[in-house]
Amino acid sequence: MADIDSMAKELSAKADAQDFAGAFELVRSNLAEFGKVLTPAGVRDALKKSTSSRTYASFVDAAEFGALPLEDSFARLEKLLSFAEGSLVLSKAWGLGKVKRIDDFYRRITVDFKMKRGHQFSYAAACDMIVSAPENHILVLREADPAAFEAMLKERKAEFVKRVVESYGGVSLVRLEDICVANGFVKKQNWKEFWEAARKEIAKDKCVKLPVKRTDPIEVKAQAEDYSDSWLTAFSHETDPQLILAGVKEYLAVKKPLTDAVKAMFETRLAFAVTAARKVNDALYARLASLVSHLRFQTPPAAEMRAYLKERSRFVQAAAALPASEVGNLVRFLADSEETRSLVYRHLPELCYAAVQEVIREFGNDPACRAAIGALVKSPGAPATLVALIAGRYADFAAWAELPPLATIVMHAIALGEGRQNGETLRMQNIVRRLFADRKWLEDTFSRLDADSQKLVFERFQASLGWESAAQHIIVTRMAKLNPELAKFVVKTERKKEYARLTSYRSFALKKQEYLKLINEDMPENIRKIEFAKGFGDLSENAEYQYAKDEQRALMQKQTLMQADLEAVKPSNFEDATCDEVMPGVMVTIQTDEGGKTYAILGEWDNDVEKGILSQKARLAENMLGKKEGDKFELPGAEGEVKFGIVKLISPLTQEIKDWMKLPEGVQI
Questions:
Q1: CB within 8 A of 202, min separation 6: which ones?
Q2: Strand partners, 101
Q3: In a 10 Å sphere around its CB, with 0-12 CB exposed, 13-18 middle and 19+ buried, how is residue 1 labelled?
Q4: Distance (Å, rounded) from C-alpha 545 to C-alpha 531?
Q5: What's the N-to-C CA distance of the chain in angstroms?
Q6: How far, CA to CA in Å, does 119 sit from each of 101, 212, 293, 611?
Q7: How far apart are CA 108 and CA 602, in angstroms?
C-alpha cells in the first residue's frame, strides 16, 4: 500500500509541476495499481492538471475516463496523442493521410488523404477509424522515399510482396491484388504480368510461402526452415493431411537428400493423409495421389487411388477445386490406360477449363481425343470450355479435320456471349467477350473466314440481344471496317432513353415515413442501447456494446442513402406518360411462351406483385422500356439461354392503378 500511496503522491507532484509526459508515463506503467486507489475521474483530473495545453486537455476529456474501463480510456488517450499535426495516419477507407490540423475547440482532426483532402474526424471517429502509420508500412515508404519504393517495386518484387504482407497482415493472393491495384502500385491490366514475375522471385525466397488457395493468407517467416532432423522428427507425427502434403513438397523443393529412412517416413505419412482425405476432400485426395504416384510409392496402390477418383466421376469436381498449376498432374495420373482416357474424354463437357486444356495438351494427338472433341463442338450445345478454348487459340486447331468450320465455332462463341451464366460457364462467357473486344483476335478470325461466312457471323452477332450495347456497337463497327461490304447491313440503333427518377405519391410518402421513423425512433433507440451496454463493463469484450455500435454504423449509412434518394426521386401521378412506347406510367400487355400477361410500369419505389405493378428499375421493366408494340425484348430469369417476349399492347393506366398510386388516407408528404 505504501508503494501505491507513494505513486499517487508522485502523480500529484507531477500534476503540480505540469509534467504531462511524466504523469502520462507514470500512469501508463502502473495502470492496475492506479485503478485500485484512484477513480478514473481522479486519473483524468490529474492528467488535465499536469498540462497547460488545450489540445492535450481536450484529448484527456475525449478519452472518456469513467465511461470506459481505465485501460480502454488510456488506450484512447494514447492513440489521440499519436495524432500530432504533420504525422502520418492510416485509414481502411482512404489509405495513407497526413494530419493537417487539430481543432481542440470543436474537437476535430483534419486529415489530408490522397483521394480526400481536408477530411474531418471527430475525436471519437478518429479513435475508431484511423491509426498512426508504422514507419515500416509500405505506404509510408512510398511517401517518404518514392525512388526507393519504385526501385523495390521494379527490381525486388519478392521483397515488395513481403513488405505489403507485413504491412497489412493476413494477406491472401486475392487481397494482395486488391491492395496493389487500389493503391496504384500496379495497374489492373498489368497485374498478371507483375505477379508472374513476382512469383518467380518468391519461389527462390524460402521465407515466403504462397498458399494453395488464392483466398488463403500468404505466409512470411522470419527465417527459412532448415528441414533438419528435428523438423523430420516433428513431421513424422503430423496428422493434418494438408500439412503433410505441404511438408513433403517443401522438402522436395529444397532438394534435401531423400534417404531411405526419409522416403519410408514420407510414404507412411502420405498413406495416412490419403486415407484421411478419402470421402472428405476429393481435391486434396487427388493432389496426394498425384504426389504418391510421382514418388513411386507403393502404398496406397496407384490403381486403388485411380479407382476411387473414377468412382462417381470424383475427378471432375476434384479438378475444378484444384489450382490450375496442379490440374495437369491429376490428368496425367488418371490417364494411365486407353480405358481411363476414354472415360476422361466422355466427361469433357463437365471438366473445368484448366482440365480441358491439360487433356488437349497431353492427348491432343490421340485420334480418339480429337474425335470426341470434334463431335462435341459440332453439336448444337457445344461445351462452353471447348468453345472458349478453340475460339481463342484457333491457330493451334486449324489442322484438326475433326472440327467443324471456323464459322460454326464463332457462332457458338456468339451464343456463349449471350444470356446470364454462372460458375465455370460465366468464366467462359467473359473469355469470349474479351476475345471479341480484342482487335487483333477479330482481325485474325475474320481473315480466316470467306466472304459469305463473314456476312453470316456479322449478321448473327449484330442480331444478338445478349451483349452489352456499347461493346456490341464497337465490335460491329470493327467488323464492317474489316469487310466494307458489310457496312450496308449495319442496323442503326437508337441510344437507350433515360427516364426521370419518379415514383408515385403513395410510394414517396411511405418512403418518407420510413425515413422519419429511422431518424426519430430507430437511431435514438440505438443510442439508448449503446449507453445501456456501457454498463456491462469492459467494452472490448462487451458483445452487446459491439452489436449496438455495428447497428449504429448501419443505421447511419442507411440514413445517408435514404436522404440522397428522397432528394433525387420526385413524386408523380405520371400524367405526362404516352402510349407511343413502354415508359413509366403505362400498362403493358406482353406475350411469352407461357401466355399473355399485363403489367403496370410505374416509378422507382412502386411495386405490387399481386396487382402486376412493376418498378421501372425491375429487370423485366428495364428490358421493356423504350419498346413499341410488336417489339421483342429479353425475359429475365433464364440461365444459360435467352428467352424473349413480345410487347402486344401499350395502354393508359387503369383506374385501379391510379387509385393505388394516391396518398394513403391521413398521410402527407
A1: 157, 158, 161, 208, 210
A2: 110
A3: exposed
A4: 8
A5: 68
A6: 10, 40, 60, 48
A7: 45
Sign of torsion over alpha carbons 605, 606, 610, 612 = negative
Asked if residues 47 and 27 have their Cβ atoms less than 8 Å apart, the reply is yes
CATH 3.30.70.890 for the 502-570 domain, yes or no: no
Rounded distance between C-alpha atoms, residue 217 and residue 88, angstroms:
27
- Distance (Å, whole) CA 653 – CA 622: 18
Taking only the tens place, the pLDDT of each residue in 330-347 is 999 988 888 888 999 999
DSSP 491: P
Q: Is the Cβ–Cβ distance between 164 and 138 less than 8 Å? A: yes
**Dist. CA 81–CA 40, nearest whole Å:** 18
- Tell me the three state secondary structure of residue 548: helix
Q: Is the dihedral of CA 190, 191, 192, 197 positive or negative?
A: positive
Percentage of the chain beyond pLDDT 70 is 94
Mean pLDDT of the chain: 87
Architecture of domain 586-661: Roll (3.10)
CA 276, 282, 287, 292 dihedral sign is positive
The CA distance from 577 to 500, in Å, is 12
pLDDT, one tens digit per residue, over 98-154 is 999 999 888 899 999 887 788 888 888 888 888 999 888 999 999 889 999 999 999
